[in-house]
Write a structure and sequence with these properties.
- The protein is mainly alpha-helical and about 270 residues long.
- It is built from ten helices and two strands.
- It has a two-stranded antiparallel sheet.
- A hairpin with a 3-residue loop joins strand 1 and strand 2.
- Helix 5 crosses helix 6 and helix 6 runs antiparallel to helix 7.
- The longest helix is centred in the last third of the chain and has 29 residues.
- The radius of gyration is 19 Å and the shape is globular.
Length: about 270
C-alpha cells in the first residue's frame, strides 16, 4: 500500500509541475501526453507479443507519439496511419493476422485520441484550461483512490468478480463520495483562492464530473482489466511501483478525459 501511495503522490506532483509551467512552457502538456500515449501503446504491443513485428510496432508507436502535436490535421494523419497499417498487413500477410492488426489499430486510434482531449480541454477555456485538464485527471484518480481505501477497509460485496476480483461495491461507493467531494472542493479553491471570487466555477459541472466521472472511470478500469485477461497478463508493465505500467495508471483517464471534454462542450465549467 505504501508503494502505491508514494507512486500516486509522485504522479500528482508531476502533473502539478506541468500545470505550474503551463504559461512559460505550454508545449509541456503536449509532450507529456505524447510520452504517455507512446508508452501505453508500447506496453500494449509488448503484452500482445507484437514488439518484434516492426512493420506494425513502429507505425503504431510513431502515431501515438505524433497525435498530440497534429492539431487540426489529426484526422488526416490517422488516414495515413490506416493506409500504412493495412499495407503492412498485406505485405507481411504470412507473418501477421487481421486480428493482430485490428486490435493494435483500434488501440492506437483510441488511446492517443482519448488522451489528446486533455490538450483540447486546455484550449476550451483560455486562461482556465489547465483547471479542466486537472479535473479530467482527478476525476479518474480520485475515484480510484477512494475506491481503493474504501474497498480495503469496508469491501465485502464484489462488484465484478469475473473481470476484477478486487473491486467491490463498497469501494465504488467510496470512490463516488470522495470524487464528488474533491471536485466541489477543487471548484471552491479555484474560485476563491486562485481568482479571489472574480471567476466562478460551475458547481453543477463539477458535481457531474465527480458523480458521472466515477462511473466512467470504473468503466475504463474494467475495460482494460478485461483486455489484460484476454492477453493473460496481470499488469501492462512495472514502471510505477504499486500501480503496474503506464497504461495501468492511465486506463481510467483514457475514458474520463473524452467524457469531460464532451461535458464541457455542453455545460460551461466556469462563469
Amino acid at each position: 500500500m505504501l508503494k502505491r501511495v508514494l507512486s500516486g503522490v509522485v504522479l500528482a506532483l508531476f502533473f502539478a509541475a506541468v500545470i505550474l509551467f503551463n504559461e512559460s512552457f505550454p508545449l509541456a502538456l503536449n509532450i507529456v501526453v505524447a510520452l504517455i500515449s507512446a508508452a501505453s501503446v508500447f506496453e500494449l504491443t509488448k503484452a500482445l507479443g507484437l514488439e518484434r513485428k516492426w512493420f506494425l510496432f513502429l507505425p503504431a508507436l510513431a502515431m501515438a507519439a505524433a497525435a498530440p502535436f497534429c492539431g487540426d490535421a489529426l484526422f488526416a494523419v490517422y488516414c495515413l496511419f490506416t493506409l500504412v497499417m493495412f499495407s503492412a498487413m498485406l505485405l507481411y500477410h504470412r507473418e501477421t493476422s487481421f486480428k493482430e492488426v485490428a486490435v493494435l489499430y483500434s488501440m492506437v486510434v483510441m488511446i492517443p485520441s482519448a488522451l489528446n482531449t486533455l490538450v483540447l480541454l486546455r484550449a476550451m477555456a483560455p486562461g482556465h484550461g489547465m483547471f479542466l485538464v486537472l479535473v479530467a485527471v482527478m476525476s479518474a484518480w480520485v475515484a480510484d483512490v477512494g475506491a481503493f481505501f474504501a474497498g480495503t477497509f469496508f469491501g465485502k460485496h464484489k462488484l465484478c468478480p469475473e473481470i476484477s476480483p478486487k473491486k467491490t461495491v463498497e469501494g465504488a461507493v467510496g470512490g463516488l463520495v470522495l470524487n464528488v467531494a474533491v471536485m466541489l472542493l477543487w471548484g471552491l479553491l479555484f474560485s476563491q483562492w486562485f481568482y479571489g471570487g472574480t471567476v466562478q466555477a460551475n458547481y453543477l459541472f463539477l458535481f457531474l464530473a465527480g458523480f458521472l466521472g466515477t462511473f466512467v472511470s470504473i468503466l475504463g478500469d474494467l475495460s482494460f482489466s478485461l483486455i489484460k485477461r484476454s492477453c493473460h497478463i496481470k499488469d501492462f508493465g512495472q514502471v510505477i511501483p504499486g500501480h503496474g505500467g503506464i497504461l495501468d495508471r492511465f486506463d481510467s483517464v483514457i475514458f474520463t478525459a473524452p467524457f469531460l471534454y464532451l461535458l464541457a462542450t455542453y455545460l460551461p465549467p466556469v462563469f
